[in-house]
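INPUT
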Amino acid sequence: MKENNKNSRRKFLDKGLKLGIATTIGAIGLSKISGKLSAKNKNSNGEKMELMTTDGKLIQVDSSEVIEVTHHHEDDKKYNVREGMPNRKFVMVIDLAKCKNALKCVSACNKHHYITGENAWLKVHKMQESKDTAPYWMPRTCMHCDQPACVTVCPVDATFKRRDGLVLIDNERCIGCRFCMAACPYSIRVFNWSEPAQGDMSEITMHMDMENENPSIEYAGVPSRKGTPDKCDFCPHMIKNNELPHCVTACPNGVFYFGDKYEDTVTNGEETLRLSKLLEDKAGYRLMEELGTAPSVYYLPPVDRLVDFEDGLENYKEYESVEKPEES
Amino acid sequence: MKNYDALLNDLVPKKFGRRGNIWVIFLVIVIIIGLIAYIDQIIKGQIVTNMRDYALWGIYISNFVFFVATSFVGSVTVAILRLTNNQWRTPLVRIAEIITLASIVMAGLTIMIDMGRPDRLLNLFLYARLQSPITWDVIIIPTTIALSFLLLYFPLLPDLAILKKHYEKVKPKLSKWYGKLSFNWNGSKAQKAIQEKSIRIIAVLIIPVSIILQTIDAWLFSTTYRIGWDSTNMGAYFISGAFVAGLGALVTMVYIIRRVRGLENYITDYHFDKLGKFLGLACLTYLYFNINEYLIPIFTAPVEEDIHLNSLVFGEWAPLFWFAQIVGLLLPLIILLFKNGRKPFPMFIVGLMVVLGSWWKRYIIVIPTLLHPFLPIEGVPESWHHYFPSIHEWLITFATLAMALLIITLLVRFLPVIPIQRTADEKQLKRISKNTES
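OUTPUT
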């Protein structure tokens, strides 16, 4: 008998609860619908407005129906280092036909990022696919992939992908596990194995640069921090001021083109070209496309070269990428 | 009753002899030297290691993988043998549990040594991202530590109560400690039921947990685009490798503990024979996955992978590769096929070979791949093209190994390495059944 009682009470509670939930949901739904229904005929004062649709047709609408669109322009324009610049997608095109290993890109990059370690962010590889194919010089920056393997594996969101396409590093958060370096198929990341020897100079310059701003990860990797990785950052500090990255401006041969994919233009400082046409005309490709990393850097194949491959050999140093200051 | 006293006398923890003291002092010295090296590494940065931008992981990671692998032994011997009702496990389980606990704790410590910024350890929790295999590790390693601790602790309760009683008059202080740790175990039916049930739940839980642990460990590598890591074989390959490494460590430890503690009557040739067959099975499984990993890619390997495989089999890495394959796998397998090979002493040698081979095998898995990137290694000093651990790395690694051994040594010193209660129960059961038979 007791058991029975308990059971029936349980059932009652259960049913009551379900009924309650159903009623609440129903009530909310009803009030919403009725709200909508009543709104339609509420303030109809008969005034009509003429409007143009997006495809150019003129239409008439009751003026009570017109609601002003609230623009979130202010939010969009506000620059957030982790979000990047709104409505931009930065890309780079590297024309292998023009590169003759002048290495000016490398030294400019090293100088402006205060790279003093052994491993530069930007490198020029001596490439030859096989014995029977022609050798060529291949500058290699960070690919700023749209599916970045490094970002996927980062355990603390220290390396991140911005909406404008840049992949950057927050070296104040990084724990130094180097998983990103292992994950990168292009091996572009370098690590600060010891206290970076940038000296007080870089810190001072940094503070001068940022006098009016808060120090931010916009200066990703600058100054470098011990126990964290660095990599090519597409020079966000330059882009922000509508200037080109250092490697682009430093190159005497106009190898690097930089631009915005949405605007479909790229420039090497001398000529400005339509990106899609350039890639189509010159058979642009991306490095290791088959991996699916979707890089933001495009290469133009080394055809119709103006210079001999051998000319670059005198600059070729297998074991050195950062020029050491003369020891006195 | 006299029988029981003799058993108790054999199995209760014994004080270190002179050899034991020297051993502990030796371990402590190695640990202190390693600690000094580690402090130096923190001050100067990982520049003191020989890891560089290409060989970006080194001996710390391979040693970590080794510890993770040996921790597998607990779940294999204890859980699987328990669930399959293999009675011969009784004198071996506690040693296996101790090895598991020591290895997994050390695995957790070793991975931190590899961090460039250990001061930011908390970021792993503050900014954790679930898609990173490292976060999976952060979750699974503490889980395994907790479970393997419980797996060691719950079966210990009756023994701790026995020890409390045993030391009551001789060493009241020690007895008190055992008493506290035994949670007032009195062997009542209710207590036994709870204990039995808890152990069963943990034994079932630890199997998936350790399989997940080994697999995540493999995924640390196979989630990258690297040649030699980017393989679907990795998870199973690591599990079977852990099976071998863990059993190898167990065989070695069992032999040493048996000799030092004079437990020849409890751990007999019969147990070694069984263990040998078990290890043989593990070796066969591992051999299968090794064939999958190294032999089959020959047919379809793209150029880069071909270069990688060639350097392993014939090139720069060949000596280590073949050492790991022959000494760590093939020779033990052949020895274990013979009945005489499964006698205690040959088994000890086999265990040593397996452990050594397994350690270097992890090295062979981690480092050569890093030195075979897709794009050529250029614009870095000559020495960055190669990797061999620096003195700092060796000292720190030896310290981690010493720390694992110290944990094992201390647990063996203060805990009964062979379950007293269970052994007594089983022996009595046998006597009763014999009586009824005759």
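end of record. The longest helix of chain B spans residues 189-222.
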